[in-house]
Design brief:
- This protein has a five-stranded mixed β-sheet.
- β4 and β5 (about 70-80) form a beta hairpin.
- The chain contains two helices and five strands.
- It is an alpha+beta fold.
- It starts with a strand and ends in a 6-residue tail after the last strand.
Length: about 80
């Protein structure tokens, strides 16, 4: 079973999204929580420590830090064109 640990940055950004976008994010995270094999398909981030992976949900990017095989910190999320600034 996959465990998510959400940061305050993530919670703040999540609450600023529209309801439809929030639903998309929750739906995708539930899908990833139920299927551990999907985590192997995440894209790696280079030179963005402590973040190690990224997840694209429509036009939203979720920044993730992998702790171990079953634990992930969900660090931040925002629109793809603004998240890396």
């Amino acid at each position: 079973m996959t465990n998510f640990i959400f940061t305050k940055n993530w919670e703040k950004a999540f609450l600023n999204l529209d309801k439809s976008e929030q639903e998309r994010v929750i739906k995708k995270l539930k899908l990833f929580k139920d299927n551990l094999l999907l985590w192997n398909n995440l894209k790696y981030l280079i030179n963005m420590l402590p973040a190690t992976h990224r997840l694209r949900i429509w036009n939203i990017r979720v920044i993730v830090q992998k702790i171990d095989e079953n634990t992930y910190y969900i660090l931040d999320l925002w629109y793809r064109w603004d998240i890396y600034k």
